[in-house]
Design brief:
about 30% helix, 2 domains, Formyl_transf_N, alpha/beta, hydrolase, Rossmann fold, Alpha-Beta Plaits, about 300 residues
Length: about 300
């Protein structure tokens, strides 16, 4: 495989903003040159280009960061210029994002009783470290009005929807209504399996956190599975949700060493810390257009 990186020092624009562009097209000569020409012709300046060309495959993937003055290169013209570039190279994917000008991604967080991931995301969002708008939180677990989660949500005007589930009713129709206008969903230890019908109806990405190092230890109680297996590394895995349980394309994984001195309780504590870090990083990477689908069940993460 080949991986090429190009970096330049940005120039002093009058009112520069950052643009991000991701590209997937057949690999031919001159793609980076045309990309540079597209940006430079409008007075923009490339800050970095990260390119991946898989070995023995005629595919080109790239993620570019550039700065430009929107008074000289209006936002709608940026889109039109990259559409022309996309057509020139018969691109399968071409996405442009300007974080300072575009609306933040709108998400809904689904969570169950365990709330370490939910709480971490809420506080990271409050600190400005999670670049999304949270439309609401959905849970199959009821929380009392005076709990810290409910108080936090009320303070920030974020609705909390309690939808108790049963074997025969997963409340998916109601969930679909609540998430209709979102850009993607986050499962922060939501311990319900979403049906294939739900995934098809929603039709957008869903990011899940699994408290184990996939593809090992799928399903329930992965910390106990790992403890019983005597592993020397434990981890957490963030992945896209597919119809197969815990088998979607992996976005991020984090690990920590363990030893014979660890107990099951310390396994769980270490796992929870990894889950929080892993889920946060995967959401940030997704929002920064660092994650691209690759082959049948993989991702590229620039």
């Amino acid at each position: 495989m080949a991986r090429r990186a190009i970096s330049t020092i940005t120039g002093g624009a009058t009112r520069s903003v950052l643009g991000i562009h991701v590209f997937h097209c057949p690999d031919v000569v001159g793609i980076v040159a045309k990309l540079s020409e597209c940006i430079a012709s409008r007075g923009g300046n490339i800050r970095s280009v990260d390119v991946f060309v898989p070995e023995n495959r005629q595919d080109f993937y790239s993620r570019s960061e550039f700065v430009f003055d929107p008074t000289h290169w209006p936002r709608d013209v940026v889109d039109n210029d990259f559409i022309k570039l996309s057509k020139l190279f018969s691109a399968e994917k071409s996405i442009v994002r300007v974080p300072d000008l575009d609306p933040k991604y709108k998400i809904v967080i689904l969570a169950s009783k365990q709330e370490h991931c939910l709480v971490d995301l809420l506080y990271k969002w409050q600190e400005g470290r999670l670049p999304v708008d949270i439309s609401c939180v959905i849970s199959n677990h009821q929380r009392a009005p005076n709990t810290h989660v409910i108080r936090f949500l009320e303070r920030h005007g974020i609705p909390y929807h309690y939808l108790p589930t049963s074997v025969g009713n997963k409340r998916e129709a109601e969930i679909l209504e609540l998430v209709e206008d979102t850009d993607f969903l986050v499962l922060a230890r939501y311990m319900q399996i979403l049906s294939g019908r739900f995934l098809e109806s929603y039709g957008k990405d869903i990011i899940n956190i699994h408290h184990g190092l996939l593809p090992s230890f799928k399903g329930g109680s992965p910390s106990k599975q790992a403890f019983d297996a005597g592993v020397k590394l434990i981890g957490a895995t963030s992945h896209f949700v597919t119809q197969e349980l815990d088998a979607g394309p992996i976005i991020e994984q984090m690990v920590e060493r363990v030893s014979h001195r660890d107990t099951l309780q310390s396994f769980v504590q270490k796992s929870e810390n990894l889950e929080k870090q892993c889920l946060l990083q995967s959401i940030k990477s997704y929002c920064e257009l660092r994650v691209l689908p690759y082959q049948e069940n993989k991702t590229l993460v620039f």
